[in-house]
Design a protein that fits this description.
eight-stranded parallel β-barrel, Pyridoxine-5'_phos_synth, cytoplasm, transferase, pyridoxine biosynthesis, Pyridoxine 5'-phosphate synthase, alpha/beta, TIM Barrel
Length: 264
């Protein structure tokens, strides 16, 4: 059996943000996606927002033509459902969307929105699309995901990453404990566990040590880092950071005799 590998999905939204700041056609998020594939990305992620503030419909169509799986981030609306079923990406990640938010600031309300989400998820699955839910790392959210019958959840890592950035070790430790417990619960509940939001090289290394993590989706940090070191170099360094985290998790698990990491 080979070593465990965590997939990296590269989000190209903010290449489109830069393009749209001036208008026109450059920089092209599809070109960025092609470079990400060359650098070793396992998939491409893009969020088609209601107001089209970055990625546009034509971007999604062109991204779908690439040979690497496309993860279509979307709000659970009828318009987005129609687009997703027409484009037929490899996967759709359902996320909360508020026009006033610059980015997604929290997990999807899977508890309050359960009645709406169950048929929505079912229709995507019937269309041959893998569905994930972007959720808070809480037992209640994970149980709701099971009841909605989504096979995958993406744990929202934003609160943990914000605490790290603000230099609040107590908050960071508490938030990581929530993520660690949620990842372990995913395994027990039969949910594939992904994670994302606010991750950088260091935090990606840390969370990659959790043995249940199957995929990380990272965008804003990689695009920002590309300004300084180039996109391919940024992605390759992230792949290396994730591999380092996996190795650390394996080493911790062997030392503890449990086959996986208990801490970070």
């Amino acid at each position: 059996m080979g070593a465990r590998k965590i997939r990296l999905g590269v989000n190209v939204d903010h290449v489109a943000t830069l393009r749209n700041a001036r208008g026109g056609f450059v920089p092209d998020p599809v070109r960025a996606a092609q470079m990400a594939i060359v650098a070793g990305a396992d998939g491409i992620t893009a969020h088609l927002r209601e107001d089209r503030r970055h990625i546009g419909d034509e971007d999604m169509r062109r991204l779908r033509e690439l040979p690497t799986p496309l993860n279509f981030e979307m709000a659970a609306t009828e318009q987005m459902l129609d687009i997703a079923l027409r484009i037929k990406p490899h996967a759709c990640c359902l996320v909360p969307e508020k026009r006033t938010e610059r980015t997604t600031e929290g997990g999807l309300d899977v508890i309050g929105g359960k009645k709406h989400l169950i048929p929505f998820v079912d229709e995507l699955k019937r269309g041959g699309v893998r569905v994930s839910l972007f959720v808070e790392p809480s037992p209640e959210a994970l149980q709701a995901a099971v009841e909605i019958k989504a096979p995958v959840v993406e744990l929202h890592t934003g609160a943990w990453c914000n605490a790290l950035a603000l230099g609040d070790p107590g908050k960071a430790e508490a938030e990581f404990a929530r993520l660690r417990a949620a990842a372990a619960s995913c395994e027990k509940l039969g949910l594939e566990c992904h994670a994302g939001h606010g991750l950088d090289f260091d935090s990606a290394t840390t969370i990659a040590a959790l043995p249940q993590i199957a995929e990380l989706n990272i965008g804003h940090f990689l695009i920002g880092e590309a300004v300084f070191i180039g996109l391919e170099a940024s992605i390759r360094r992230m792949i290396s950071a994730i591999a380092q985290g996996v190795a650390q998790g394996v080493a911790q698990g062997v030392a503890q005799g449990v086959g996986g990491a208990r801490g970070a």
